[in-house]
Write a structure and sequence with these properties.
This protein is an alpha/beta fold. 38% of the residues lie in helices and 17% in strands. Helix 13 links the parallel strand 12 (346-351) and strand 13.
């Protein structure tokens, strides 16, 4: 492991500017095999991506797409075999196996190879290991990791092989994405960026499409790569070198052998789907005294000199530049009906991204409830995410493992193939669009390809995606709205009443309850939480705080993320508000922050039914908000809060001061807010509305694939 000091960072960025991201990543590979400081990794990877155009797994002018046919694999054999060598890792192997069983592709067998453990615990643990689709093989005596992999592969029945060390894990969508790339685009080996966890927490990435020349300079393929079993046979398998000063990475040498045979490599660089456990005591591949990677590279070149010929280098380069595409799709991923018998409807929710916002909180809650009712949920996003705006993927994971951020593992010209595959293989009943422009524009083709696929559109307000809704209205079966103003706008713009369903948003009243603390005039917290974007007008909150001035006992608290964050921070400094206003950015659980608020302020210029308002009312917090969109339906002016004209800073300031200086008024409003939530904002009513809408739309006798 090396650190990146200022000098190294300057050199790396200079190399990036002069020679591009490929040269930068090659240099990193030479010096540290990507095991480098996580902060520097994130910064340099982001910089490399920002100048890499077009984003692709290959560089230069590409040849035309040529047909690619993937032969059918027998249905009585698993499609992929995951081989897990286990030596003294009995404490971790169950987690490794469970991560494979949790994969979104189920056509998998697991082979655990016990390779002569000496800890006295691991063999007993493996004998007691009872998991579906899992076979444990015991070997006599001690064997090295490459030999154990070879033994497991020799017993495997799958077309594709993935080797996973017993202390590591895979993210749920990894095997499916890897096999999709292999079968749809003719790659031979696919791996992924890596997230190290345990003793360290860092991420490192790889070249998108390494060829033999790249692999001779650095190990640009992760241990858990998925590859064709036939290539393992041609290459002669893994070859171990004894541990110690002469140790060589056996997988690195194996990838070089595959590349020399002409194998095409692809790496999923946008997301770390391999979880690599870092032990405080180190491991074989990071032991003290291990040869530097540059030295190992030289020794591997010498050991494989008969294979590394000019002809092999040329073949690998030409193979990397090829572009293949299976006309019939990933045939073997489509060969089985993977929807369980008796399963409920399958919904594909299409969103632009999963960032920090009220829509994400609302929809993640709806999905959790729909899953409890038997629905199968799939989430697809179509815009690159920005880390500074938050990532709420974890909010959706309790509802589904099938979350696919298309920009993170595919180039845009491949998205159509994956969406077609997903709808067909997962037997999607309804496509539920919540703001994804890409899916709007794909509707004409999708409705032609899948005539029985139902399409539902969800609109939160009357700008933005309403233009797409009207443009593609002929391809939409049902429009869901959460507020009357949006419903009225649709009807005024040519929509028919039977195609619009109003489902007011709700909140889990058991999770959002009033806090125990009671405000006093000398301890009054004014809060603002939400997306930092123009329509939410977060800068107006600063103007309100400045207008009120240093009021005794009053402080201001703000949370959120979004594109206006740099302007917000600069404005705080310019207005000299740092002492009275705290900005917390992204928070893990909004309830912990709302519990500190005595009043929630939303100075939006445009809004629907913001989830944070529902949460605040349920927690007995008066709300002072702009009288726009669906907010007048949520806030009873003078009873549960105050409504102000948007942009009227003085009106907001007066309402806040009045609430602080009249504890009795605050108490009445807090009690009224909770009562209103109990009467009108229950979660059950909202979820029942969504379920009824989908059930009325989906004909259970129809198969959307036809």
């Amino acid at each position: 492991m090396i650190g990146f000091d200022g000098r190294r960072l300057k050199i790396a960025l200079d190399l990036l500017r002069r020679s591009g991201p490929r040269a930068l990543l090659r240099q990193i590979g030479r010096s540290a095999a990507y095991r480098w400081n996580g902060t520097a990794a994130a910064s340099l990877t982001a910089a490399a991506r920002s100048v890499q155009a077009p984003r692709s797994r290959t560089e230069g002018r590409l040849p035309d797409i040529v047909p690619h046919q993937e032969g059918r694999w027998p249905t009585d054999q698993p499609l992929v075999s995951v081989v897990i060598p286990c030596f003294n890792y009995g404490a971790f192997v169950a987690e490794a196996v469970d991560s494979v069983l949790a994969q979104t592709v189920r056509d998998v067998e697991i082979i655990v190879v016990e390779g002569g453990s000496t800890d006295g615990r691991t063999p007993a643990t493996l004998r007691a290991l009872a998991r579906a689709r899992t076979n444990v093989l015991f070997r006599e005596g001690r064997h090295r990791v490459g030999d154990n992999r070879n033994f497991g592969i020799s017993e495997a029945r799958g077309r594709y092989i993935c080797c996973l060390d017993a202390d590591d894990m895979l993210r749920p969508t990894y095997l499916e994405k890897a096999i999709f790339l292999i079968e749809q685009y003719g790659y031979d080996t696919v791996s992924t960026s890596v997230r190290r966890f345990g003793a360290v927490d860092e991420t490192y990435t790889l070249l998108p499409a390494p060829d033999l020349s790249d692999l001779l300079e650095g190990n640009h393929v992760t241990t858990c790569a998925v590859f064709r079993r036939s290539l393992w046979e041609q290459a002669g398998g893994y070859e171990d070198v004894p541990a110690g000063a002469t140790f060589l990475h056996e997988d690195w040498r194996f990838w070089i052998r595959l590349a020399a045979l002409g194998a095409r490599f692809a790496n999923i660089t946008g997301e770390p789907l391999f979880l690599y456990r870092a032990h405080a005591t180190g491991s074989l591949s990071s032991a003290p005294g291990l040869l530097p990677n540059a030295v190992q590279a030289g020794l591997i070149r010498e050991a494989e000199r008969d294979r590394i010929t000019p002809a092999a280098l040329d073949l690998s380069r030409r193979q990397a530049a090829r572009r293949l595409r299976a006309e019939e799709g990933p045939a073997n991923l489509l060969r089985r009906d993977i929807r369980p018998a008796g399963a409920g409807p399958t919904l594909l929710l299409a969103m632009p991204f999963l960032l920090l916002g009220g829509a994400e909180r609302l929809l993640s809650e709806v999905l959790r409830q729909l899953r409890a009712s038997g629905y199968r949920l799939i989430v697809v996003t179509t815009l690159p995410s920005v880390p500074e705006h938050g990532d709420t993927t974890s909010w959706f994971e309790p509802a589904t493992d099938e979350i696919y951020h298309l920009p993170r593992f595919l180039v845009p010209e491949e998205w159509q193939d994956f969406v077609d595959y997903a709808i067909a293989s997962k037997r999607v009943d309804a496509l539920w669009i919540a703001g994804s422009t890409w899916f709007y524009e794909a509707l004409p083709r999708l409705r032609e390809r899948f005539p029985r696929l139902r399409v539902v559109d969800l609109l939160f307000n009357i700008v933005g995606h309403t233009a797409n809704n009207r443009r593609f209205a002929a391809f939409i079966d049902l429009i869901l709205v959460e507020s009357a103003p949006v419903q009225d706008w649709l009807l005024a713009n040519g929509e028919t009443p039977e195609r619009v369903r109003l489902i007011p948003s709700g909140i889990d009243l058991a999770r959002y309850v009033p806090a125990a603390r009671a405000p006093t005039p000398d301890r009054f917290v004014v809060g603002c939480s939400g997306r930092l974007s123009e329509e939410k007008s977060p800068l107006d909150f600063l103007a309100i705080a400045e207008r009120i001035g240093p009021q005794a006992g009053m402080s201001f608290l703000m949370t959120g993320a979004g594109p206006l964050e740099p302007l917000l921070r600069a404005a705080m400094r310019r207005r000299k508000l740092e002492g009275r206003l705290r900005f917390l950015g992204v928070v893990e659980d909004v309830r912990t922050v709302l519990a500190q608020y005595d009043a929630l302020v939303l100075p939006s210029r445009l809004d629907g039914r913001p989830t944070v308002v529902l949460e605040a009312l349920a927690m007995g917090i008066p709300v002072i908000a702009s009288a726009v969109g669906g907010l007048p339906d949520l806030i009873r002016d003078g009873e549960t809060g105050f409504l102000c004209p948007p942009g009227d800073i003085a009106a907001f300031a007066r309402a806040i001061v009045a609430l602080q200086q009249d504890p009795a008024l605050h108490a009445r409003m807090a009690a009224a807010a909770r009562r209103f939530a109990e009467e009108s904002l229950g979660l059950d009513r909202m979820v029942a509305g969504y379920a009824a809408a989908f059930e009325a739309l989906i004909d259970p006798s129809c198969d959307p694939r036809h």
